[in-house]
Amino acid sequence: MSPQATTMQPHTDAVPEEQVMAGFPPAPEMRVGPTNWFKLPWLRWSLIHRSLSVPTVDVWRGNAEPSALPSGAALYGATMVSGPEGTKVGLDQALAQLEIDAFMVLHRGKVVFERYLHGMAPHLRHGSASISKSYLGIVTGMLAGEGKLDLTATAETYVPEMRGSAMGSATLQQLLDMRAGIVRPGLDDRPSALGAQDGGVFEVLGLLPRRPESPGDFYDFVLRKPAAGRHGERLYYDNGQPEALAWVLRRVTGRSIAELMSTYLFQPMSTERDGFYSVDKTGAEFSSGGLSLTLRDLARFGETIRGNGFFNGRQIIPEAVLADIRAGGDKALFAESRFAAAYPGGSYRNYFYLSHDHLQGISAQGRYGQRLYVSPAADVVIAHFGAAPGQSPHPFEVPYARLHREIAELLMG
Amino acid sequence: MSPQATTMQPHTDAVPEEQVMAGFPPAPEMRVGPTNWFKLPWLRWSLIHRSLSVPTVDVWRGNAEPSALPSGAALYGATMVSGPEGTKVGLDQALAQLEIDAFMVLHRGKVVFERYLHGMAPHLRHGSASISKSYLGIVTGMLAGEGKLDLTATAETYVPEMRGSAMGSATLQQLLDMRAGIVRPGLDDRPSALGAQDGGVFEVLGLLPRRPESPGDFYDFVLRKPAAGRHGERLYYDNGQPEALAWVLRRVTGRSIAELMSTYLFQPMSTERDGFYSVDKTGAEFSSGGLSLTLRDLARFGETIRGNGFFNGRQIIPEAVLADIRAGGDKALFAESRFAAAYPGGSYRNYFYLSHDHLQGISAQGRYGQRLYVSPAADVVIAHFGAAPGQSPHPFEVPYARLHREIAELLMG
User: Fold this and answer.
1) ipTM given for this complex
2) Under 8 Å CB-to-CB from B286, ≥6 apart: which residues?
């Protein structure tokens, strides 16, 4: 880290973030719990220290030495980029305005910029939110490549309990592309501080108080999704679809999602630290949003994607898995979705966002400012974690995507 | 591992342990929760996978390569030792009869025996129960050696909130030696499956259902301990005393117990994996019993003690800290305690048990069969984890101690 990082202005809130969970014991109003974790400043602490709030399962990195992430010629904190309003500011200032906790840029495999802010540090594991889905998408592709899954088969072929449920008759590929015909139960029916969007998963984890009608675990969560329309007709982003897919993966392999991630990605990549998932009472991972990991380990995943699956001296992800993603999804459906603003002309495939522009952007995205952006054309990987509260569509979605493009273009030269 | 391990008879219960938390989802009666985790076969799974039941905080190992634990000439599974009844059986048979999950013997720094049973594995982190106290005792000694703590000062000197509470007027050394004048609240007043002994800590963690009068966190747990008698007069083993000491350590250093363990022990020892602690709602560690770690990392701690604090190429624990422990505690008080049966002529000091025999045994002990035994005279370290349900005094206390002595004498030759 360069000295600039320490001279940045701290984020200011009515409640100083340094006081959150500080002291032994912390002041009652400074503790993180079900009534405040989704608001600043408590949100940051909650995302950076998720294991202290909920049960978790580790994603073992193995015993090998961490793979190398060499340093290269640097970007600077003063490099001019677009801030959230579109006006040009220094990169460090943009990160502060965009509620970023950690930010890393690699060019041609070398780290050219790395910042940790707001109590985040290289060894801490930040919640990645829906970037978890992209990890799941890759491992699903790898299992299909091994012949263990047929992506054209329906979910109920593998999990008979799903027969008669909204997603049981969807194919695995439809679940990968958010094209099963379902609606979110509870959407707009609960005036919670989170706006109820995806409240179900947080109730399963105990992060929000449970109601009598709350699902008891992620299996129950999947089975309760109401059907709406026909499969394939819409891009309807929802946690239910990856959770249904996770159930299929567990059933077919006899292994937990954490074990699969360890075997297929974390061990081969020789990550710096273990990752971990939030889990429900049955031990099932919050596969659509519960993976926590270090920034550098997220960057390693990006480097593996940039290298067509080759990283750490070996082919980790088969090229075909990434070729399928890069070919993209249905552009017409994407254009109708709320994601088109940040990715005009883009598409969605296997839980990745494709830019289909001259930068060939491949992106994994999670709520609160979690992003992985890979530009094979510019040889650039950008990874960041944030703590921007609020719902999708979030006002930072367009600014994040613009910042990624600007940095990639700058480095492509 | 030698082939013997796989040919051993599995532990038999009415409910097969392989079915605990097996399947996606697991059968309701096979799930681990507040009503069954303390009974076999659920106890084993609960001890081996504690992070899936409660919030936790990691003890970071750092980024260095794991320190070496070389292999040496082997003990054998057929080596004759005393089983629980005192009759001679093969070592592997003894381990099965003594509900052992993992067992390791080092002689002159080399691993001469290593077994993983009942679903335990080298990379899994088993609950160490009260061995956690011994880690706390060592770090307390290290902080005192740096002049950050005065062990002759009272707890309330450092934590003013403890003024007027039963342990506030006890010295840190009295807390280290279990000699504060307190009684266990709730002992025998609750007919729980755990016999209520130390029920308070499990209620704090949510491992047992909370009652209206349950302490809310570990600070509250400490403050509620009722006084009984005068400090120094008895050896009264209780979780309150190390929990009070942990509060002092946090307040004085401004750091969590997990951070202290990482800085003072796990990073210098270059453990194979991170450890982790169960935590309460305030993020406070269950310092008296909540540390989970791998068997090999427990063995590394033992090797460090055997080497007078020197391990991994450096002096990790100052010699004076270990000399103080080896000198022992009050033998007369120990003789009156329930521990004298396993350690006749022994004593207790800084959360370690001293044998004061020709083997110079130093032992850390935890419920359910967790043990670290170090014999500097025999150059032997024995580490094991178990899942023997029940209360102290446990019928296996004497057999475990006897087994340690027999192995040490065998290797001393």
Assistant:
1) 0.93
2) B132, B201, B204, B205, B218, B277, B278, B279, B280
